[in-house]
Amino acid sequence: MKMYGNWRSAAAFRVRIALKLKGLAYEETFIDLDAGDQHKPEFRAINPQGAVPALFDGDGPPLTQSLAILDYLEETKGGVRLLPEDPRARARARSLAQVVACDTHPLYVPRVRTYLMEAYGLPKERMMEFVRHSFETGLKTLETRLADEPGTGRFCQGDAISHADLCLVSLWVGTKIFAVPTEPYPTVARIAEAILALPEVQAAHPLRQPGAPTS
């Protein structure tokens, strides 16, 4: 398999974790988002949206959108199961994943931040307030659900890692980058630390990828 990603992409991080947990061999080509490589015709031919990740597996067009890729890997590959067998538990895991991947992460991706600053003259300081608000809204939702709902265990859904955890940890790692306070979210913190302790997650961590800052 071949994947196009970027070291700091939360979506690519989610997919990278799944690939490693399932023991799948892959080659990752890093797209320099800061240099604008995602806008070059050769990459737009791969993904017209100009976003990572994009995953090639055999013949056919690339797979895009992290949740769609996670579902594909779960449905077609062996290894560690990343969704529960029980339909209700599976729906809950997907619901928690979508809190991050559908309702939180899209609000602060670089193309949104850049557009708001350029189109509306939003100062960087105000933009950072917006970013932190987006994080806090998602984290508050996760904390409330994970603390109150009976399905929570060692991980988001019971004691086995799932898509929900891959999404949660991708959000959690971003709190350090954007200086988001995390003290109000002890349940999220507990689960995030359990996820980050897994060697596959450590190997997939953004700061361990080519192009990441060394300090």
Q: What percentage of the residues does DSSP assign to strands (E)?
A: 5-15%
Largest sheet: 4 strands, mixed
Q: In total, how many beta strands?
A: 4
Structural class: alpha+beta
Helix amount, in percent? 40-55%
Brief description of this entry?
Helices cover 51% and strands 6% of the residues. The chain is α+β, with helices and mostly antiparallel strands and 215 residues long. A 4-stranded mixed β-sheet has the order 2-1-3-4, with helices on one face.
3D architecture notes:
The chain has helices at 10-21, 41-44, 66-76, 87-101, 110-120, 124-148, 163-177, 186-196, 199-204, and strands at residues 2-5, 27-30, 54-56, 63-64. The protein is an alpha+beta fold and 215 residues long. The chain has 2 domains: 2-80, Glutaredoxin (3-Layer(aba) Sandwich); 87-203, Glutathione S-transferase Yfyf (Class Pi), Chain A, domain 2, CATH 1.20.1050. Strands 2-1-3-4 form a 4-stranded mixed beta sheet, with helices on one face. The longest helix is centred in the middle third of the chain and has 25 residues, at 124-148. The radius of gyration is 17 Å and the shape is globular. The mean pLDDT is 96.
From the structure above, extract its key features:
9 helices; 215 residues; 2 domains; Glutaredoxin; Glutathione S-transferase Yfyf (Class Pi), Chain A, domain 2; 6% strand; single chain; globular; four-stranded mixed beta sheet; alpha+beta
Explain the layout of strands and helices:
Blueprint (H helix, E strand, L loop, with lengths): L1 E4 L4 H12 L5 E4 L10 H4 L9 E3 L6 E2 L1 H11 L10 H15 L8 H11 L3 H25 L14 H15 L8 H11 L2 H6 L11
Parallel strand pairs: 1-2
Antiparallel strand pairs: 1-3, 3-4
Helix pairs in contact: 1-3, 1-7, 4-7, 7-8
GO biological process, one term: L-phenylalanine catabolic process
Pfam family, one: GST_C_3
Protein name: Maleylpyruvate isomerase
